[in-house]
Write a structure and sequence with these properties.
The chain has two domains: 41 residues; 142 residues, Umud Fragment, subunit A. The protein has three helices and twelve strands, in the order H-H-E-E-E-E-E-E-E-E-E-H-E-E-E. The strands form two sheets. Strands 1, 2, 3, 4, 9, 10, 11 and 12 form an eight-stranded antiparallel β-sheet that branches. Strand 6 and strand 7 form a beta hairpin. The protein is elongated and about 75 Å long.
Amino acid sequence: MSNDHVSEGRMHEPWGEGSSNDYRSLVIYSAIALALAFTIRFYVAAPYLVQGTSMDPTFHSTDYLIIDRVSYRFGDPQRGDVVVFRFPQDPSRSFIKRVIGLPGETVSIKDQKVTVINDAHPDGFTIDEPYIATENLRESDTRVTLGKDEFFVMGDNRKASADSRTWGTLPRNNITGRALLRLYPFTSIGVNPGDATFDK
């Protein structure tokens, strides 16, 4: 009887060795969880909330995206990619646009047509852009030759977008990542939302 009583008392001892181990384990697991969350947030993926109409009709204001921060550590942005980047004139602001011109290319825009000139196509080729709504087109007269680490980006809503036509080229180092997932609205959930591929 007395032995049973002693064992029962030890099992319910509030500040015993078992409680101390549990506390240490909780601290360790919490620290690991915070470290993983920090790593994912700043090095793997990050949320992005679309604001404004510059990417209509591909993305609308309040669309909730997850940005892939890893892919461009192993490869370069490609034409048609939708990228999020730090605005060159104010790095505290982030924008979302589509990659149109790649380093070393010349981008010419005239009569609502975008022509790209590069080594493979010295006479240029016109980009087919099915993601643009006809009512969002805008007359423009622009010609830019890109440097080694410069990209030319534009919004899909050419009437409402402030982009490389107005503020210039986008440095490679300013690119945060590419749109990987759209989580909201729920009716438009998808992977690599808005990405386009080109034959040339």
